[in-house]
Records
---
Amino acid sequence: MVTRVITIIGFACVIAALIVLEIIGRRRTSRVPTLGEWLGYLMRARAGRALILLGWLWLGWHYFAR
Amino acid sequence: MAADDVSRPDGRLGRGPGAPRLPAGGRLARKLVVGAGLAAYSWAAAGTAAFTTGALLVVLLPGAVIAAVAVWGPPARIPPPDRLDVTGLWYWVICVAALFEWEASAFKDNSLWWHPALTDLINPLIAPHPLKSAAILLWLLAGWALVRR
């Protein structure tokens, strides 16, 4: 039981950190990029664009098709 | 994702400077129609059972539409930054790597009850039909946001 709780807390902490980074990134003077900014940066190249869109498709397949 | 920094004039359809403009009422009507269509699709898609052809098609169809839009009719793109601050980017890298590592450790342990993978935690959360619909709608909107990047 304790191990399960620790695992869930671990996921919650990491996801909370990602949300905090996004909030920090939206401040005007922040050096931290937003999620959209760094994804957009990766998607400048055609290969990066294809990989990110494939990742999106995989996410949909993983959670909604199986 | 920040979508409020689109570098295009308001009302532009997004296919070059010569593209026709919709009046304000038309833009609102278009948003309502598209929103209702996406919500209806999400609701119907959430009704499909996992591991069926229907469930697969529900995912592949938006994928095909997004791919077609990305290749043949890309909307006005949100310009990416010319460069990223390396230190700021590393915060993201560390957090994303931690998420993958935590997930991989659960996966390595065969995702047992005492060490569940993220999927095992999320699937029960989106099991109710309305929540699964909302999750699919969110996924569709994320796809649209990505194709504009």
Note: Chain B touches chain A through 54 residues (CB under 8 Å).
---
Amino acid sequence: MSVHKVCGIETEFGIMLRGAGESNPVTASSLLINAYLSDLQATAVGPTPKVGWDFEDEQPGNDARGANVGPASPPEIETHLVNAVLTNGARYYVDHAHPELSTPECADARSVVVWDKAAELILQRSMRAARQMLPEGQELVVHKNNSDGKANSYGCHENYLMDRSTPFHQIVVHATAHFVTRQIFTGSGKVGSEAPGVSRTEVPFQITQRADFFEAEVGLETTLKRPIVNTRDEPHADAQKYRRLHVITGDANLSEVATYLKVGTTAIILAMVEDDAIGEEFTFRSPVQAMRRVSYDLTLQRPLERTDGTSIRPIEVQWALLEKAQKYAETHGLDMVGAEVGAEVLDLWEGVLTDLDDDPVKCADRIDWVAKHRLLQGYRERHGADWTDPRVAAMALQYHDLRPERSLAQRLGLRRITNDAEVERAVSAPPDDTRAYFRGRCLAKWPEAIVAANWDSLVFDIGTDPLRRVPMMEPMRGTAKHVGTLLDECTTPAELLARLGT
Amino acid sequence: MTEREQKRKPAPARTDEEVVEAPATSETGEKLKAEMDDLLDEIDEVLETNAEEFVRSYVQKGGQ
């Protein structure tokens, strides 16, 4: 049975301190986030959230394949690092030496695009705020990308709510097929390869930033030997009912259409898996090899070997999945991903596949790797530069620079899905159709009374002993419809707690 | 109906071609080249002045 595809994106950003000698990324990331929070405080009318994250229930070592097998090294939960929850329900924190922002829980892929764009604005404002605190000539620069070109990678992870009772093996089979082949429209492009032994001549440019870093098919790791399907089992919700699929394969996207398709297509496919509606299995002889082959082939023509000995091009897999999704829309409806959003995703998906089949360059207004490649080709032709020219690598990086005056992605006429007004709103307001609404509104209204927050609870201090925890185990409850009026009416948190009956 | 079905099916595989870079589009006309030239002029001012130094110094710690 399908459950509503609540979803979100957590993005690790690249960060550098320019104009100084050495820079410690942990310090830089902390400074960046603290600058944003101070700025909020300085410009706020009332009190602003300085709420800490509540780690009590975090269990990243739980493995979907059974019990707690534990990761190879103990999880690094750095409780002393900056870790803020914002009034839009997002989490903004330092993680593994990067600033990271996790969007609030969204009820559909379009909302994810809105709150992901809002995240970019937050990072931009953080840079501006930090600039004012740094010595003259120094600035923090943030990139929305996934690799430094020197074999260090950081992720853009997606999260999807799923029905616990769906056999994990089924998820692995179908998710693998999609993650390997969706790269043709989710990739953000990269000069060269960071896989050992692959030369610049063999791979001058590839479709994704991340393919080089995936070395396993299924597993718990996220920082080395990365698996195509990650088995982390931390639902942050009722664990009897729900699973949260934690997806680590994607590139961060600057193109709104690419983000929309990345999340939208995956949500539909996972709903189909829950309803056992896909039928055909696309299994590759070596998924890890297949993932790289897709990324290295700009023509999209090179076939992948299936386990039955036949071969298939990645775009054919995507066409098949699209057709099954179109049928599924008719038989089951797309309410689980948002009916209107689902229909729009199907249209965009078909349009992109049609254009990729015809001539990939037609997708330059929708697909990041195509836009980037076209720009770099134009530059190379004009200056007679080859792929090893540092100016080309510098441009490829600058595509992802989040400073509006420097970003190259900003200038390429990428199609918008969102409008400026809704993105601005999403910087400080939560979605109104998930539990993020309850979290965000409480934080905005009573920041001084909230001691700690978590994805599935808020902890209040209303002056009594002990502290009061409000559980939020249902991602689709605590919406505007459920608690909007209640939140409007309550003047104090004590009143809220009394009326909630907790 | 038939036309829509045709649109949905994947295009037949193109014959193997020497692949150095992505195929040049059949639509690269004067207009597209001019647009690209304008764009390159425009961004020239914001590009890194010392590309080599920038690329060399862009180092991140691994994340997830």
Note: The first strand of chain A starts at residue 7 and ends at 12.
